[in-house]
Amino acid sequence: MTDAALAAHLAETAGQILLAVRGATVFSPQALGKAGDQTANQFLVQAIRHARPDDGLLSEEMSCDGERLTKRRTWIIDPVDGTREYGEARHDWAVHVALAIDGVAAIGAVALPDAGLVLRSDQPAAVPPPASPLRMLVSRTRPAPEAVAVAERLGATLVPMGSAGAKAMAVVQGEADIYLHSGGQFELDSAAPVAVAAAFGLHCSRIDGSPLRYNQEDVYLPDLLICQKELAGEVLALVREINAR
């Protein structure tokens, strides 16, 4: 099985496990989120270690001993991206499985289990052109100030949504046009979405335009821009202007 096929298979299977856990429990939303995270993480970790024993592994739900830093290839997984949304039985959560090679999110799959979808880097498709007015994705609980300011300058409509993976895949599917985030994320939040979005021909970078680097010692990767390439220059310029004030 290729790396891309493995990523997609694992993301889809973990999503099915999570739906089963959610359907079989009577936990509170917070307890359900924790149970889902732990169950899906155990499956993904064991499956990757069995299928790719020589690769590094980084997961939100396990401690890091630093061994991954010695590897050219490291799997980066987020068993439940959007734990709150999952626990609340919303649809805007995702499962992330990515493979970083030499610091680049090269291969990835993002499962949207409630939609029955898995978007994968080895099966790209054409992304619909931007809408008018533009649609900008923001966190449904804590919209990034830069995103709100850029949306005002562009005359864009704000689209609140849950997990990073769900937001990124909304751009991939043409349901929104710009995903601009600042203020706190980690490699696990963006590795798989970036691998998929880049394969679909979208612009992916930090909000200062610099490249996104993965499998770093410090996994804090606080900001992200995913959008159509023709929009990237204007969005990045607006961010620089706003931040210069």
TrEMBL record:
This is 3'(2'),5'-bisphosphate nucleotidase CysQ. Gene3D superfamilies: 3.40.190.80, Fructose-1,6-Bisphosphatase, subunit A, domain 1. Pfam families: Inositol_P (PF00459).
